[in-house]
Amino acid sequence: MKMEEKKKMKILCVGLVCLDIINVVDKYPEEDTDSRCLSQRWQRGGNASNSCTVLALLGAPCAFMGSLSAGPVADFILEDFQKFHIDVSLVSEHAQCVLPASMVISNISTGSRTILHMNRNLPDVSADDFSKVDLQQFKWIHWEGRNAEEQVKMIQQVVKYNGTLLQQQRITVSVEIEKTREPLYQLFPHGDVVFVSKDVARHFGFLSAEAALRGFYSRVKQGAVLICAWAEKGADALGPDGVLVHSDAFPPESLVDTLGAGDTFNSAVIFTLSNGGSLQDALTFGCRVAGAKCGFHGYDGIAEKFKND
Predict the structure, then answer these.
(1) CA-to-CA distance for 239 and 241, rounded, in angstroms?
(2) Per-residue pLDDT band at 256 (split at 50, 70, 90)
């Protein structure tokens, strides 16, 4: 398969979509006080959903697989997906469920984001749902670590499918282990590319990205790449050759909105690797795009800065 043909194939992101209600403030509110916010907006959120947004803005054909409720909020979400030309044909609708929502306090003085998340009864997609997917259209599938036991079964379906293909036609599998939840750690040995968060690294007692990569690398499968971003310290990666790759951070002139910076980093890395770029190029591009994103609200600014970069 020629690289040009592969470029036209889609990247699929599996995970959460939710409603983010973002309250922009100039200082974090004190408890039991009444204060005004500078602005408030609705934004489609969720890690896998955000990753699709960034991939689309970078110019990659992509698809989202996740669950959605019915009703006006779900309509807003679907309309927004369509605005970015993200394929939502694999979304499963649960009419009786409530769409997850996040109340976000975005502090422009510090760039911090504080999130209160609500997810009552919307089920995650299952291995059974995934078994109906036509895998031929994808070159890369990314899982946001959630219902890990089911996700392992989904990945096993991809591994089985890959077994019927030549090496260069196979789907690359990436997983993100972001939350400090024990069941998610079973995903470590299942990704060709594994993103582990600073939160998980610190939970295990690691004080730097390098220490985390050295400490976790024995958990990943042979030949895998392990990546850990560390906010303003940049990001590190470790591949099968044992060489540590590093990129410094690229902070914006002023920190405005860090919501989704991690999802942006992951997407930019996936974008580069899926187009045949090196690990060093991918890491640097990830840090550049994530850094720039922190300098403006939302994601729209990514397209003008980086498309066709």
Answers:
(1) 5
(2) confident
Alpha-carbon distance 218 to 231, whole Å?
A: 24
Of the CA atoms within 13 Å of residue 205, those in its CB half-sphere come to 1
Going by C-alpha positions, the residue among 161, 210, 153, 220 that lies closest to residue 185 is 220
How far is it, in rounded angstroms, from Cα 104 to Cα 117? 8
pLDDT tens figures, 124-151: 999 999 999 999 999 999 999 999 999 9
b/e per residue, 183-203, with b = 16+ CB within 10 A?
Answer: ebbebbbbbbbbbbbbebbee
**CA-based angle 58:137:285, to the nearest 5?**
25
Per the CB < 8 A criterion, the answer to whether 19 and 77 are in contact is yes
Q: Give the residue with greater pLDDT, 4 vs 246.
A: 246
Per-residue pLDDT tens over the stretch 175-201: 999 999 999 999 999 999 999 999 999
Alpha carbon distances (Å) from 117 to 19, 21, 120, 121, 125: 10, 10, 10, 13, 19
Answer whether residue 3 shows pLDDT above 70.
no
Average pLDDT of the chain, as a whole number: 95
CB 30 within 8 A of CB 20: no
Q: d(Cα 289, Cα 287) in Å, to the nearest integer?
A: 6
168-174: long-range contacts, CB 8 A cutoff, minimum separation 24: 168/1, 168/6, 169/1, 171/135, 171/138, 171/139, 171/140, 171/141, 172/139, 172/140, 172/141, 172/273, 172/274, 173/140, 173/141, 173/143, 174/140, 174/141, 174/142, 174/143, 174/266, 174/270
